[in-house]
Design goal:
By secondary structure, chain A is mainly β. Chain A is 0% helix and 49% strand. In chain A, strands 2, 4, 5, 6, 9, 10 and 11 form a seven-stranded mixed β-sheet that branches. In chain A, strands 1-3-8-7 form a four-stranded antiparallel β-sheet, with no helix packed on it. In chain A, strand 5 and strand 6 (54-57) form a beta hairpin. Chain B is built from no helices and twelve strands. In chain B, strands 2, 5, 6, 10, 11 and 12 form a six-stranded mixed β-sheet that branches. Classes of the chains: A mainly beta (116), B mainly beta (114).
Chain lengths: 116, 114
């Protein structure tokens, strides 16, 4: 089954304790991205990657790191989490390309992060 | 800079009535436009997209959207609402041919009343 898998589903941590949220896709997609969802703000893009070893900042990259060492994996790293990073996080992937490509984003089920 | 506006936080509609969820956008070039739906405790699911061609786009679950270039709008519609359509709907835009930066709207909660 085609899917994007995020782990963990729920995470409670304390300020300053490094954490990683994993994301993996089994569709051989070149494009992957991370979003955070906050009430009243919708989804905001954190980072995206158009291929292995290629990453770019989205609209809210501060406080986050990503890496794309393999095509299928795109982990999100919070090296020193703060309470304002409490949010619902989504990973997504898609084909990369012009008009002929699907352009459809496939989303993971989300990670609810609470930073105390 | 590209942007997306969903002017209504919530839309209420009676079951069986037509529904419209509004979206307006601002991009520098020709837009790629999308609608996604989010059910409780789930990730977002693709509904439909406009890339080029016919201004009326048909998507999943009986939804359709009309691209209006002069009004820079991409409203989501359905002729007859179902209670099961109740969910959070997001409009999104991506520059063409530009970057792979997606901008999502703030979301509109659709409530279909039985």
């Amino acid at each position: 089954e085609a899917q994007v898998t995020q782990n963990p589903r729920y995470l409670i941590t304390v300020t300053g304790k490094k954490l990683t949220v994993t994301c993996s896709q089994n569709m051989n997609h070149e494009y992957m991205s991370w979003y955070r969802q906050d009430p009243g703000l919708g989804l905001r893009q954190i980072y995206y990657s158009m291929n292995v070893e290629v990453t770019d900042k989205g609209d809210v990259p501060e406080g986050y790191k990503v890496s794309r060492k393999e095509k299928r994996n795109f982990p999100l790293i919070l090296e020193s989490p703060s309470p304002n990073q409490t949010s619902l996080y989504f990973c997504a992937s898609s084909e990369r390309g012009g008009f002929g490509a699907s352009q459809k984003l496939f989303f993971g089920s989300g990670t609810q992060l609470s930073v105390l | 800079a590209q942007s997306v506006a969903q002017p209504e936080d919530q839309v209420n509609v009676a079951e069986g009535n037509p529904l419209t969820v509004k979206c307006t956008y601002s991009v520098s070039g020709n837009p790629y436009l999308f609608w996604y739906v989010q059910y409780p405790n789930r990730g977002l699911q693709f509904l439909l997209k406009y890339i080029t061609g016919d201004n009326l786009v048909k998507g999943s679950y009986g939804f359709e959207a009309e691209f209006n270039k002069s009004q820079t709008s991409f409203h989501l519609k359905k002729p007859s609402a179902l209670v099961s359509d109740s969910a959070l709907y997001f409009c999104a835009v991506r520059d063409n041919p530009g970057t792979y930066k997606y901008i999502f709207g703030t979301g509109t909660r659709l409530k279909v009343l039985a």
